[in-house]
Amino acid sequence: MGSMSRCLMWVMVAVLATVSLVPMVTMAADADPLQDFCVADNSTGVTINGFPCKPAAKVSVHDFTFDGLKKAGDTNNKNMAAVTPASVIQFPGLNTLGISAARIDFAKGGINPPHTHPRATEILLLAQGELYVGFVSTNNTLYATVLKAGELFVFPRGLVHFQLNVGKSPALAFAALSSQNPGTQQVAPALFMPDIKDEVLEKGFRIDGKTVDMIQAEFRDA
């Protein structure tokens, strides 16, 4: 079997495995639906906790289909990685269903930097390559390992976690998340992009003002 065929096989396995995880991750942070479905109608301009429902008469099978994870993301960036989300924002059929997905592409050496999902637990399936993955608990214990293709790893809701490509080739992973809109907050940009008073960062990280300025410039100029 050629390398391209093996890659396609793993992508198919990844998609099937992600679908099979739906029953587990739908025990989610989101509220239970009160109807069969509620395809998001983003055209109303109404702001609620979630999205208004598209009229049932206007719903079609296309609302429950999404092809945005077929194409590889652009890893030509500072992280050398790309996350392609499939949340309710991109896939309106997920509204009220308590689940979403993502594709993560890594160039050699690429990283999905430390971040959190405040509204979701994440389960990651590595389809291709080799990733160093882990999360840090609230008592600052690190749980990390090197994943091989076909293996799974779970990141508990709200905890800081990361993925780093430590293999000799590009890597590909798929994630399922237990919220239609899990949210993502990257740790470093969250602290060094806003205009937080330097003294807070100096004392919080035990660094000097020059280092704060250097890190802020790195993220603000990105």
UniProtKB/TrEMBL annotation:
Mn(2+) binds at residues 115, 117, 122, 161. It is found in: Secreted, Extracellular space, Apoplast. GO terms for molecular function: manganese ion binding. It comes from the Eukaryota. Its main location: secreted. Coiled coil: none annotated. Disulfide bonds join 38-53. GO terms for cellular component: apoplast. It holds the Pfam family Cupin_1. SUPFAM superfamilies: RmlC-like cupins. GO terms for biological process: plasmodesmata-mediated intercellular transport; regulation of root development. Keywords: Apoplast, Disulfide bond, Manganese, Metal-binding, Secreted, Signal. InterPro entries: Cupin_1 (IPR006045), Germin (IPR001929), Germin_Mn-BS (IPR019780), RmlC-like_jellyroll (IPR014710), RmlC_Cupin_sf (IPR011051). Residues 1-28 form the signal peptide. The keyword Manganese applies. Oxalate binds at residues 112, 117, 122. The keyword ATP-binding does not apply. Residues 67-213 form the Cupin type-1 domain. PANTHER family: GERMIN-LIKE PROTEIN SUBFAMILY 3 MEMBER 3 (PTHR31238). Belongs to the germin family. This is Germin-like protein.
